[in-house]
Amino acid sequence: MKKDLLSKSKEELIEILKQYNQPKFRANQLRDWMVKRNVSDFGKMLNLPKELRDELQKDFVAYPLEVKEVQHSEDGTVKFATKTLDNEIIETVIMKYHYGYSVCVSSQIGCAMECVFCASAKGGLVRNLTENEILAQILLAQQIVEDRMGHVVFMGMGEPLNNYVNLIKFLELCRDDDWGLIIGMRNITISTSGLVPQIRKLAHEEFQVTLAVSLHASNDKIRGRLLPIASKYSLKDVFDAGKYYTEHTGRRVTYEYLLIKDMNSSDSDASELAKLLRKHIAHINLIPYNPVSFLPWEAPSQEQINKFANMLKSAGISVTIRRELGSDIDAACGQLRNKKLAK
Ligand code: SAH
Fold first, then answer.
1. Sign of torsion over alpha carbons 30, 35, 41, 46
2. How far apart are CA 156 and CA 173, in angstroms?
3. H or E element in which residue 241 lies
4. Domains defined along the chain, listed by start
5. pLDDT for the residue numbered 341
6. pTM of this prediction?
7. Which long-range contacts (C-beta less than 8 Å, at least 24 apart) are formed by 244-247?
8. 13 C-alpha to center of ligand 1: Å?
9. pLDDT at position 262, please?
């Protein structure tokens, strides 16, 4: 199995290049091609000597991920599958908005959270993705659409706060404008099912990232049926942690609320949620449920979705309904899963 060069530190790259009798400055050139110019084909790195390009091609790969499949949705969303060096398949989604591209990355292979409605939960957690596997998803997304990703959202497969160490390493890479990817912290959204201790820890890291918390219910009883993690942390714990995050970072927390028919989307659910949210500086994003072929759940009617949103609005709450993107290619929220497990 060939090793990748993206995962190497500056010192390691210099060491490797020394074996090919290359000076130190080649490390920066190589890194520049891989990160700033999104080039993963050593053959195209034209300011490197031809001999070196050939040697690298023979001995290494640039990125720890290899694109296996690219699917285009009718609405312009692109989903691509990549293979890791240990032969796992992960999926990443590129969304186009009026303000530019946003990439939805996976943070783990599989997921340990066992949310009953989510496709990614099936099969459990295989392993965490490394910070460079997360970075490679963004670089490959930029390569595929030949444009910059202005936003990164951690809403693909996995629970990012359950891969805390690598998530922090990734954020540090984004802050390192010499060696990393230049992307503003405010343009990165971390979505979590509500891991309270990690939310509090993240509040102290001094990253200005946006935090999105999956609420999905207005009381602990219903939340407990949907998200097993809710039996560990109550809604009160989650809101307290959200408040703490805002106090320490100055960033407003977004709450996500999945609308599932006959589960959490009635008028009384809306008024209970309005009451709950009134006390917090928050924004709520309603996500109509995207169907998953092997799960029984469905979204409420459009009429009920609008009614739910309007009830919140009239209670003075800032609310948006998430536009469903890419569902024709199973690229919408909650539809990503580990394909190796799907067989
Ligand atoms: N583990 C993180 C990221 C998961 S994906 C989290 O839980 O927040 C991002 C969002 O999609 C989460 O709010 C998740 O609950 C939601 N989601 C999962 N399955 C879905 C589905 N089938 N339809 C719509 N949203 C779904």
1. negative
2. 20
3. helix 235-249
4. 3-61 (1.10.150.530), 65-329 (3.20.20.70)
5. 39
6. 0.94
7. 244/199, 244/200, 244/203, 245/199, 245/200, 245/202, 245/203, 245/211, 246/281, 247/203
8. 38
9. 96
DSSP 112: S
Helix (H/G/I), strand (E/B), else coil: 171? helix
Helix (H, G, I), strand (E, B) or coil at 164: helix
The answer to whether the beta carbons of residues 137 and 188 sit under 8 Å apart is: no
**Helices 131-145, 164-175: inter-axial angle, 10-degree rounding:** 50
20 vs 38: CA distance, rounded Å: 23
- Of 148, 62, 164, 63, nearest in space to 112 by CA: 164
Query: Residue 144, Cα to own-chain centre: how many angstroms?
Result: 18
For the CA of 292, the nearest atom of ligand 1: 22
Q: State the pLDDT at residue 339.
A: 55
Question: What is the residue whose two structure tokens read 């230049």?
Answer: 182
State if residue 284 touches ligand 1 by the CB under 6 angstroms criterion: no
Q: Which two tokens stand for residue 264?
A: 């959490």
> Token digits for 82?
């990549």
The DSSP letter of residue 266 is S
Residues 124, 103: Cα–Cα separation, whole Å: 24
pLDDT average per 10 residues of sequence, the chain (343 residues)? 94 97 96 95 97 97 97 91 96 93 96 93 92 97 96 96 98 86 90 98 94 97 97 97 95 95 97 90 90 91 96 94 75 63 39
Q: Which two three-digit tokens encode residue 262? A: 């006959």
238 Cβ below 6 A of ligand 1:
no
Active site residues: 91, 333
Residues in the chain: 343
* Protein residue with its CA nearest to atom 9 in ligand 1: 155
- Residue 324 per-residue DSSP state: P
Q: What Å distances lie between residue 113 and 1, 63, 226, CA to CA?
A: 31, 28, 11
Tokens of 40: 């993963």
Tokens of 297: 């759940």
